[in-house]
Amino acid sequence: MATTAAPAGGARNGAGPEWGGFEENIQGGGSAVIDMENMDDTSGSSFEDMGELHQRLREEEVDADAAAAEEEDGEFLGMKGFKGQLSRQVADQMWQAGKRQASRAFSLYANIDILRPYFDVEPAQVRSRLLESMIPIKMVNFPQKIAGELYGPLMLVFTLVAILLHGMKTSDTIIREGTLMGTAIGTCFGYWLGVSSFIYFLAYLCNAQITMLQMLALLGYGLFGHCIVLFITYNIHLHALFYLFWLLLGGLSTLRMVAVLVSRTVGPTQRLLLCGTLAALHMLFLLYLHFAYHKVVEGILDTLEGPNIPPMQRVPRDIPAALPAARLPATVLNATAKAVAVTLQSH
Amino acid sequence: MMQPQQPYTGQIFHPTQTYTPTTSQPFYGNNFEDEPPLLEELGINFDHIWQKTLTVLHPLKVADGSIMNETDLAGPMVFCLAFGATLLLAGKIQFGYVYGISAIGCLGMFCLLNLMSMTGVSFGCVASVLGYCLLPMILLSSFAVIFSLQGMVGIILTAGIIGWCSFSASKIFISALAMEGQQLLVAYPCALLYGVFALISVF
């Protein structure tokens, strides 16, 4: 069990940054008085000096103390290097001001600490949630509990990306406008974030009791079934096997999500709309992933080409010259798509 | 106290006294003999590099939490270049992919580890650890120069090497960040990252 770190959440309550900035201003970070005590011989490139100095001392000091400490301890060393000292002070003040502004902007806009509680999990919890995502629970009178965490869903999305990449590589899929990695990441993250948002919007319309985080977690864990099905069927190319797994594993994970949503929605029309949409999108996504990113067994080619081709011919087919003229989408999918193109051309 | 200066000794009226640093920090404008050696100035310490390499290569050796206190990117840089070079030997000019995947992977692991650990972690530390643990992947890609990895032997070897890399990386992260009981949770994203590197090596 891990507690959320209080120091890390310093920017969470609104009073933190403002008070810190106020103190810094008082302590002379913007002082116009030149301190004659810090004299030294270096009158060279003072900005780089400052940069190197702060680079070294960054881990040891707190920003608020730095300005105070610099003014306090020093040593009067005579009038040598007065000009160097002046430019050094100016450079120092510029550096401090710039750094303050940058860190303030960063802590305001890029504060990922708000996501910290959602990653506080144990391996046993993740394991049990993965297994539970395949087991639908028929309790529709009370809202079913949804684990509000993001580690499991995020890892599952990345796993799906990896499986897609593996499938594309083994089937020599060529992506014309883009990269394999970009396509895989875009597809998986786009599905997870896009469909979650869409279903959340529908849930808002249908008055369902579910938050965005819960929807993200639910859909994320629902991708576990997809991962298993794709991992198996990208390596064992049997059509019947894929359809069986599609119905079985895809259906189980969809049923689980549907049951959760039904338990949190009131009214038959609303339930039908919400759950129907989710079920359709989830099942169709699995179908799309299988057919779009991997070679299909050549048996399908034979039925499309007609009687001229002998059955079970496993000859790699060239991309026909007519294909660019047909202006198909940029992704050259697989042998089935090529065969469809050839059929279209011949008509 | 920020800077190790000499304490003020009350010699304010001695104009000839000059400021000198008391530690071995390099100081511009000193004469040639007083400059530290080049490797020390660059922060490349071969003994530490060797220690960290041994920690990665012995997956069952207990990692010392303090070895990652200094951010050392020289070793990882060498390993990334060696990985690209072994891929080059196999006819794949994919330095760009190695660079891109390692940059994005380090960024992702940095965000994830900052969210999962009690103490934060710096980007340099993450990059350093992930770079060092790339070493077994170099073995895989050098194996791929001579033998094809697309058979059953290749699959088993690839899986073993990915496991080795991610186990070492998670072991070092766990000991450096004191995240007991979460080694599997850290190892899995490392395994995904090294899996992508393995994908480049194999195909």
TrEMBL record, chain A:
As for family, the record states:
Belongs to the YIP1 family.
According to Swiss-Prot or TrEMBL, what is its membrane topology?
Multi-pass membrane protein
Q: Which GO terms describe its cellular component?
A: Golgi apparatus; plasma membrane; transport vesicle
Cell location: Cell membrane; Cytoplasm; Golgi apparatus, cis-Golgi network membrane
Region feature Disordered, mapped onto this chain: 1-51
Please identify the protein, giving its name as recorded. Answer: Protein YIPF3
- Tell me what gene encodes this: YIPF3
Give a GO biological-process term. cell differentiation
**Residue ranges crossing the lipid bilayer per the database entry:** 150-168, 180-203, 215-234, 240-260, 272-293
Q: What is the lineage of its organism?
A: Eukaryota, Metazoa, Chordata, Craniata, Vertebrata
Q: What is the originating organism of this protein?
A: Equus asinus (Donkey)
Residue ranges the record marks as coiled coil: none
Automatic annotation (TrEMBL), chain B:
In its keyword annotation, does this UniProt entry include Transmembrane? yes
Q: Does the keyword Hydrolase apply?
A: no
How this chain sits in the membrane, per its record, is: Multi-pass membrane protein
Grouped into one coarse class, the protein's main location is: cytoplasm
Compartment list: Cytoplasmic vesicle, COPII-coated vesicle; Endoplasmic reticulum membrane; Golgi apparatus membrane; Golgi apparatus, cis-Golgi network membrane
Q: Name one GO biological process term.
A: protein transport
Residue limits of the Yip1 domain? Answer: 56-200
Entry keywords, A to Z: Endoplasmic reticulum, ER-Golgi transport, Golgi apparatus, Membrane, Protein transport, Transmembrane, Transmembrane helix, Transport
Membrane-crossing residues?
73-90, 97-115, 121-147, 154-179, 185-202
* Pfam families given in the database record: Yip1 (PF04893)
Gene Ontology cellular-component terms listed: COPII-coated ER to Golgi transport vesicle; endoplasmic reticulum membrane; Golgi membrane; trans-Golgi network
Superkingdom of origin organism: Eukaryota
Record's family? Belongs to the YIP1 family.
Relate the assembly described in the record: Interacts with the COPII coat components Sec23 (SEC23A and/or SEC23B) and Sec24 (SEC24A and/or SEC24B). Interacts with YIF1A. May interact with RAB1A. Interacts with YIPF3 and YIPF4.
The job of this chain, per UniProt, is described as: Plays a role in transport between endoplasmic reticulum and Golgi. In pancreatic beta cells, required to transport proinsulin from endoplasmic reticulum into the Golgi.
Name of this protein: Protein YIPF
List the source organism: Equus asinus
